[in-house]
Design a protein that fits this description.
- The chain has about 140 residues and is mostly beta strands.
- It has a single domain, classed as Sandwich (Jelly Rolls).
- The protein has strands spanning about 5-15, 25, 35-45, 50-65, 70-75, 80-90, 95-105, 110-120, 125-145.
- The protein starts with a strand and ends with a strand.
Length: about 140
């Protein structure tokens, strides 16, 4: 089977370029969320099906207290399409992490779509901070076999 793809759109943001303790912020406790990055992907109305949007995020996180369980979520137009959970250890062990994950959104309808990546701390009495870098990118491709 040969898989051919045609690029429909691409977008990338890098709200934080590097690790920086002085510019860190605490990841909010669930059910609150910390918004990390947003991109906009446009799917044309003609010749765009079937398709997929390949999303990749990297978030620099530092454990401050306890072992925090950080839930990363990806939303399309406000609706969750992906999530992953990452344990973040603190003092006495590893403290700094670069968490990278990929999500694939298949057969997205035509139009402009807003993708957002968020983080939330699911564990009481723990703390983890975003210390950077933070990157988020999306590539929309038309696929056919």
């Amino acid at each position: 089977m040969i898989l051919l793809a045609r690029i429909l759109d691409k977008a990338a943001v890098q709200p934080r370029r590097r690790f920086n303790l002085a510019n860190s912020f605490t990841i909010r406790r669930s059910p609150g969320r910390s918004r990390l990055a947003t991109i906009r992907i446009r799917i044309p109305s003609r010749n765009s099906q079937p398709n997929r949007v390949e999303l990749v995020a990297t978030v620099g996180v530092r454990g401050i207290t306890g072992i925090a369980q950080i839930l990363f979520r990806v939303f399309r137009d406000g609706r969750e399409i992906f999530n992953t959970l990452q344990g973040i250890e603190s003092t006495g062990s590893e403290q700094n992490y670069a968490v990278t994950f990929q999500a694939i959104d298949r057969n997205v309808r035509a139009g402009t779509h807003i993708y957002t990546v968020t983080a939330e701390n699911r564990t009481a009495n723990t703390r983890a901070n975003v210390v950077g870098p933070v990157t988020f990118s999306g590539l929309a491709v038309r696929t056919r076999t």
